[in-house]
Records
---
Amino acid sequence: MEAYLDNSATTRVFPQVQKLMIETMDEQYGNPSSLHSRGMAAEEYVTRAAQQIADTLKVDRKEIVFTSGGTESNNMALMGGAFAAKRRGNHIITTQIEHASVSGPLKFLQEHGFVVTYLSVDREGHISLEELQEALREDTILVSLMYVNNEIGAVEPIAEAAKLVKAYNPQILIHVDAIQAYGKYVIRPKRLHIDLMSVSGHKIHGPKGIGFLYLNEKVRIQPLVYGGGQQKGMRSGTENVPGIAGMGLAARMMYEQHEEQIERLYQLREQLIKGMSEIEGVTLNGALDRTNAPHIVSASFAGIRSEVLLHSLEAKGIYVSAGSACSSNKPAVSATLTAIGVDQALLDSTLRFSFGHFNTEEQIDYTIEVLQEILPRLRKYTRM
Amino acid sequence: MTFQAFLIKYAEIGIKGKNRYIFEDALIRQIELHLERVEGDFTVTKAYGRIYVNALSEYDYEELIAELQKVFGIVWICPVLQLPDEGFSVLAEKIVAYMGEVHPDRHVTFKVDARRARKNYPLTSQDINIQLGEVLLDAYPELKVDVHKPQLTLRVEVRDQFINVYSIQIPGPGGMPLGTAGRATLLLSGGIDSPVAGYMIAKRGVTIDAVYFHAPPYTSERARKKVEELASLVAKYAGPIQLHIVNFTDIQLYIYEKCPHEQLTIIMRRYMMRIAESIAKKNGSMALITGESIGQVASQTIQSLNATNEVCTLPVFRPVIAFDKQEIVTLAEQIHTYETSIQPYEDCCTIFVAKHPVTKPSLNVIHASERKLEEEIDRLVEEAMNTIETVVCRP
């Protein structure tokens, strides 16, 4: 049996999406900016995709800027937002558990005169609103929070946080990294006071190399990419029509029978949690109830290095991610696992299991069975 | 100036007596093989104890030189102007033009070093030296003569068909042409040292193949890919390398189960040497190569080397044995293996390493430990030998 349980890394593309993408490469290969009918036909795909996405968020389609993916969306929001607002101040607030595509650009901004406050999180990975309140300053220009943490699936209190920030100063920009949340949660940026929100195509059974940034129409940020002035100059470059069309359809599909799908993901999650909690020496990280995201389980396996377990599972057709890669010559300890206080000894023994549309109950049963079988064998040969 | 010809100088080959042609032919063959990777048409010819590379089409100078610098056996690469004999005054004119173009900065000391292979040339070597020197000094008064330690030597060789003029010498890697010194088997780990060791032995003309021990699931497919990548990098110099991949997991786990943990690495390495030797013998290899360096780690103390060496009957070449780590790193950077070597994947020597491994193993103690393996080890070694996977790593 094969069980791909690494859907937070990437997902299999919906067959309907694949078909649509081929259409845009084979028959409708025009450049959306061309004046002729081929160009207009291609533009149609882009407009339709923007509309499909806008419909899932209840926003205007003009507020969707297509990018090369989640990383670019995060970079664009943070750098573009910070540089556009720098006359008002230079203070940015974020959390200790952000993805590298947020912490990376913030580090760059720090090197260019911006000051960043990193909020701590509790054992389940949640920020404290009190700490956020205290962190706000007169010169705060931007608050960037992730909706769902990519390693443990913690869900941050976006609505409350945004309300609190806007009450303090409505000019502060709110950016949300929703890369792990979009498709799992019904998100209403307007109601939540979100100004900027990053999404990736390939986490929602769409293609790689495409993503978007929701950019509230009232908000002005600096573009990152200059050139031919496409997308109203916000992001130059010929639009990635196959990717955009594919992501648009995938977005629509993610929100069809949405409640049933989320229920199914939660059931898979609870099935795996139940199975693993019955195995000796397994520690589950983050919240186990439905306050956590439906598609992520983080588990630590005492005495076994994550890479070894990962490859042992791989040999059985089960694909997962190592929570924190750590090897003899390059320790790379996970900021999230450290921030939620995972035991030092378990940091290098943590795996992430993440589900998607194509996973089944049988696959979860199989995974539990395999774990029961191989864990004792691997524990016999532990590193001294 | 676009050079059409390159004079290839080699050193040690010259002293191999009657076998000289074997080495020269091997060098020509190796140059030809390397030139296949350079865009353009070239010929490689031998004439009067000289090897020439001639360009028959346009080519990229940097690319050509970089490739020739990977051919073992080449000591100097000299871009050379080949002129027909049109009389001395024409020759002098062309040499003045050559100097103007090739050496824009002429605030240097120089001398002319002429040789006359064709004895009926109207001027003697000494005449050529003096007369060309004068012509050059007239044309470029900023030049200064120094016949003892010149900064620039302009060489003029009068040969039967043409006159060679050159003043640039680019160093080659030295060593001996590949394929002239038999075959040896390299234990390739994925670290910094073993690719360098392989390079150094190949440089002496030895054809190499390699053995890699992997231990899934303790080592990853990526670690194996990294080793294949390293073999391919070494192959840029040493030619295609056969890489034998041995699954070592069961042997390693068995040793772990039966033997004292602080002796693990030594016993494991003894089995690696035994297996490598069997592979070597099967493939007509007459030596093993390792990247060991005295005292670098516990398993490379002189006592540990003694213990691992004991199981081998073939000579074990350890070309970096007396190198400091930094010296090995410098060489690894030169041959461009360093970047790949430092990718952080676990190799099978580190996964079970004890906190305090023995540094001075006694042979008696090791023998006693190995006796505990008697029951299963032969079968496991045989199984490992039977499941070897061989891939060819090309440049």
Note: Chain A has twelve helices and 15 strands.
---
Amino acid sequence: MKKLALYLILICAAVSFIYPFLWMAFISLKSVGDAGARGLLSSFFTLQNYKAVFMEIPIGRALLNSAIVALSTTASVIFFSSLVGYALAKLRFSGRETVFMIVLLTMMIPGQLTLIPLYTLIVRLGWIDSYPALVAPWMISAMGILIFRQTFISIPDDLIEAARMEGCGELRILTSIFWPLSKPAMVTVGIITFMNSWNEVLWPMMVVRRQEMMTMPQMITTFSVGGQSGGELGVEMAASMLLIIPILAAYAFFQKYFIDGIASTGIKG
Amino acid sequence: MRTVFFTIIFFLFAGSSGAIELTYWTSSNPEEIELGRLLVRQWNLSHPDVQVKMQPIPATQSSEEVLLAAIVSKTTPDVCSNILPAIMGRFTKSKAVLALNAFPDYEKAVIGRTGAKLADLFRSRDGKLYQVPWKCNPVMLVYNTAIFRALGLKPPKTYSDFARAAETIAADRNNPGRWAMAVSIKTTWWQRLFDFYPFYVAATGGRTLLCNDSAAFNSPGGVAAMTFFRDGFKKRYFPMLGFSGNIFLEGKTAMDVAGPWVIKYYRRLKPGFEFDFAPIPVPDNYKGPVYTYGDPKNIVIFATTKYPKQSWEFVKFLISKEADLKLLELTNQVPMRREIASDPFYGGFFDKNPLLRKAARQAQYVVPMDESQHLVQILDIISGQFEAAAVYAVITPEKALAIAAKKTQALYDYW
Amino acid sequence: MTTGDERKDAIGYAFTAPYILFLLVFTAYPLLFSFYLVFHSWDLITPPEYVGLKNFYFLMHDTDFWQALLNTLIFLAIHIPAQVVFSIMIAMALAEKIVAKTFFRAAFFLPVIISGAVVTILWAKLYSTDTGIFNQLLGLAGIAPVKWLTSTGLAMPSIAVMATWKNMGFYIVLFLAGLLNIPAHLYEVSKIEGTTRWQDFWHITLPLLRPTMLLVVVLSTFGAFSLFIEPYVMTGGGPLNSTMSVVLYMYKHAFLFQHMGYAATIGFALAAIILLVVLIQKKYLDSD
């Protein structure tokens, strides 16, 4: 009896969490006249809303921009954060503790404080409407450094000594020994960074004005708020679907990493 | 090394001696792009030594933002013809535009065309003239002639006329759910340019929002205009919904507030749709000509230009008699040329386009917005008070305008 | 020997140099520049003008700012308790021995990974007065349509409910981890003493969840003070400024009015308020 109530609660909750997305998916596949219908199922499905999105706004370009920005941010965060993480975990140099303290400190600065000055910096650098504006300020993350440091510390020093004996440079040691040994950490950092970058909307809205440079969330927001969609529900939902499909696909494959990674680091978008 | 240097110099000169190239930015709406292409082609054919390259301002956001961004990055064009006079304050403050009255033939070219009275409205506060008055879109009352005919209505001249018309429209049993007019309940600053501001201008006989850096709108005329909208929302002449799409065109409303740019737009979207223009309604006791907001767009030469003289020649070409006719024909917007409605040169066009003759007559009674670096913020403040006093009616129009005036004062006091 | 140390030092510096450079440009400089900006008036075009404490003075008297702060606090006051209560409830349900646990966890986590922009656009449709599903469901029960986003009293609570829905999966997982860390033998003891489950919850579960609670509260405070895209998309800050958040207000000053100095001052004040609120939370939740 108790179990039954438990399942009832869980199923109701799960439905309320999934239904809106299903509704969105179905609306995006319905024809214009059908969209108002209450139920999910329709007599037939069509891709006309998706075609309309591609006709009305440069969504292909936005997808490309988002992919370029999110992938290069992710690659950069993994590379540079692991570099610093390795130095903090395995290299001895004066000032190491100071750097570590700084990493921890930067995590406590509320983003709202630096947002406007950061924007004026981008303006002064002449980076408005460019990829550097979207990528450069997020190239290294304190969270990434901490995760890599944590992971690398537990890797025995003997491995490093052995590699050094064989004449390996530190960079070689990092890339060919430490990276393969810390795949879960890399996936975690990669997923969190990619997700945050892919979903970010405030920053692009600040530094991008030209439609050709907009990322997906920005494009969809201006499309929806700016009234360009003409209030056509199906078209708006189709545009939104295009934004979430890549993340959903990644979620389907790396679900465990998403949940455990995001929860264990206490960071979210 | 030296040879390389000289070679570079040589090519630089060789490159520039061939032909001067000017960059010209236009608005991005299709009609104006067409006009710009046509004029630039004509110019380039007759001026092989000064070639003009035209470029529409990117359409994703307001042209003001694009222009300000261009000024920041020093990438402004030589000439731009889509300048909202209200933001000129910031352009002149940053010395981004040239003072045009320095050109010896300025008087003849600009005052001769526009007339001293209208041209004076665009005089900067330092006494100089940085902009060429180009064209306007007098904001007027548009009404659906079919609905008005069916209900035996005449276009409303006063607020009482408007109320009577609205009651008649609401009482029409054959068309339940039709509204007198749709007024945006959004608070985006420029929305007020199509409701409160033209009604305010009309009610005050052509006043603008500011006078000597302080609010002029907290006046009987301002209160009258605000009360008009408050009553309209209260008596449900205006719907309280955020509609999307063009409900006037669909016949769900009988009136709208718009400029002559809608003529082409309506004809394209709904051929055969019958509509006409009338002056903005005024308070019952108002006497005199009905003024309105002109929505003017002007031409400037940016200070970044290397060729001020050539740019000026091109600007004069853009405001020539023939170019103004093309402007009328292609964009259905009104050149700021005095007595254009009765000028025989344009008579043929107006005979074929009586709607535009109305707009051109109205164009003699238009005002721009004030030149102020705070203008957007002032309109934003008014918009917020419009929402409070008119849309939701939680405070009185008097109170709302007093608050707006106080907030406006604070802007000048602190910045 | 010295040379070896120097070599090590050199590698250490080489590995951290990109980060230091990055830090100087994108963290230290903006941080310092924010101290400069709050004393200046700057529209990006004309040179910055020193205005002393004018920005702060204007902020003190800016009723719109205080309204935005109040709105944000209202959001916080609804969002955080709702977040904590519902997340604990579902986490406790998931902590029981049930089938399809992974499925449920994944389902609750789904909104967390989806862009806030999409979630907001989607919910704006669900909240729609005429065609939204909430009013359709109410209609089935014979209840008149509710103005979820267009009435001053309901707009911010509606946004808070949506935000709770969006982030709950994340906090469920945090609480679940916290619950699984509680040693089972503690409950065994209470069984012997014959306490009720409710007493167990108050005397064992809740106290031991305190660290998780603090984490959840602090994280959602940071999140709640960043409220931006939700009101931007759904209400534009209206009706009557009732959903104008501080970040949206800052954005408006920076990008509509080009008041960089004042926008930076708003950010500065907000950061101070966030730290203050977090300190208070720490004081009440951290004391053992």
Note: The longest strand of chain C covers residues 40-41.
